[in-house]
Amino acid sequence: MVFIQEPPHLENTYLSDRTLQSFLRRHIPEDARQEMETSLSELGELAAGPLRDLAFEFRNAEPELIQWDAWGNRVDHIQVTPAWKAYKRNAAEQGLVATAYERKHGALSRIHQFALAYLADRSTHTFNCPLAMTDGAAKTLLTHGNQSLIDRAVAHLTSRDPATMWTAGQWMTEKTGGSDVGLSETVAKKTENGWALYGTKWFTSATTSEMALTLARPEGNPAGGKGLALFYLEIKGSDGLANNLHLNRLKEKLGTRMLPTAEITLNGALATPIVGLDNGIRNITPLLNVTRTWNAISALASHRHGIALARDFARRRIAFGAPLSEKPLHLDTLSEMESTFQASFQLTFELVRLLGRDEVNESTEEEQRALRLLYPLTKLLTARKAVANASEIVFCFVLMGVTKGFCWIIRDFLSIRTEQ
Ligand SMILES: Cc1cc2nc3c(=O)[nH]c(=O)nc-3n(C[C@H](O)[C@H](O)[C@H](O)COP(=O)(O)OP(=O)(O)OC[C@H]3O[C@@H](n4cnc5c(N)ncnc54)[C@H](O)[C@@H]3O)c2cc1C
């Protein structure tokens, strides 16, 4: 008999997560919690089963950019993987964005929504990326109150129907930089058809989205961030054809390879100013704050996922006559990861709680100040801890680390985004 190591098992991601359950018990009244738990345990089951199976089945699949059709027409079509399509269906049906906007549980709806996002995250590659930007776009449009754009897009962005749900992109980074976006070179020209944008966006994820929020400098505006304006654009124009956009190439990335990230040239793409014709960076902040929150949720989910697998494995892996779970040094490693996870969890869900209160105007001035501070801090801290945790997780499985399947798990861990 040749020895085969039993692999770790992943259980229902909700029912096996005592930290989340205890947080909900502390913050959500009994009736509302019971209602939320139905959807949480349903999604937890999918995440440990069919969604995870899809992730494994398509772990090496990548999107493909088809620039020309057989007859010489420029088509710039991105063919996404079957898993990516399934993740979009799942996101709509499970209300991964919608739950926050339906506000069934008032201020607590954000906790419900981000608990769902957290449970699904590790089993859906990086579909959280388009969802983060979709959520951020809905919030930005609602914040600025541009009624015609709200009427046009928000119902799609927050839909539970896979056939009508849209996702959104966030096109900021240019060759000049991603942090220092005030250097952006994209120009907005007023034409008889409306505003037309010219420039190159260097790193745009979720390029298969139906719409995007982007920054451009209206002609004659001063240099720097204040001279940029925030625009809404649809990927296809009103005639159904590509909106004067060229996809130059898909980016060669170390991780997040199922996520289509492209470099795009805007060659007169028609776009609508969302709020005024300047202060674009300030005006896109609602989107940045929402995507920072999603980033923290993703980091937290990867942290939790690693611990869940490592703990389960420790019970199955026998070395030197006993399971790893009985070795004091190994337990010390696991408990250190667990305590960092606990801290990251409480920080992230406190941010989520405050966000929910802020959105229904229930927060105090002090809570508003705390919220502002927590957005960047939580994103930074949770991402750093999750990356360090990924390294520890590798050591928990080190014997198995040579196999390809395992390498994929690690690549999955390292997919924490480094965006704004
Ligand atoms: C997987 C992935 C997906 C992405 N998707 C998108 C997308 O959808 N849309 C989009 O617009 N962009 C996207 N980006 C780009 C991303 O937003 C930028 O890479 C990011 O904002 C950093 O900008 P930069 O690459 O120009 O680095 P820089 O801004 O040049 O930063 C380089 C280093 O300098 C540090 N630094 C920068 N400014 C300061 C400062 N003032 N003080 C101290 N240190 C500083 C940074 O922390 C970093 O360590 C994506 C990136 C990745 C990796």
Describe the structure in your own words:
With 420 residues, this protein is α+β, with helices and mostly antiparallel strands. It is 49% helix and 16% strand. Helix 2 (30-48) runs parallel beside helix 6, helix 7 packs antiparallel against helix 10 and helix 10 (285-316) packs parallel to helix 12 (365-396). It starts with 17 loop residues before the first helix and ends in a 7-residue tail after the last helix. Bound molecules: flavin-adenine dinucleotide.
Order of helices and strands: HHHEEHHHHHEEEEEEEHHEEHHH
Helix content: 40-55%
Mean residue pLDDT: 93
Radius of gyration: 22 Å
Distance between the termini: 53 Å
Could you give the order of strands across the largest sheet? 4-5-9-7-6
Summarize the main sheet.
Answer: 5 strands, mixed, barrel
Number of E strands: 11
Number of helices: 13
Report strand %. 15-25%
Oligomer: single chain
Give the uncertain stretches in residue-range form. Answer: 413-420
Instruction: Indicate the overall shape.
Output: globular
Bound molecules: flavin-adenine dinucleotide
Helix/sheet category: alpha+beta
How are the elements arranged and paired?
Blueprint: H1 18-27, H2 30-48, H3 50-57, E1 64-68, E2 74-79, H4 82-93, H5 98-102, H6 109-120, H7 128-144, H8 147-157, E3 168-171, E4 187-191, E5 194-205, E6 211-218, E7 229-234, E8 245-250, E9 261-273, H9 280-283, H10 285-316, E10 318-319, E11 322-323, H11 328-359, H12 365-396, H13 404-413
Helix pairs in contact: 2-3, 2-6, 6-10, 6-11, 7-8, 7-10, 10-11, 10-12, 11-12
The structure holds flavin-adenine dinucleotide.
Flavin-adenine dinucleotide (FAD) binds near residues 179, 180 and 205.
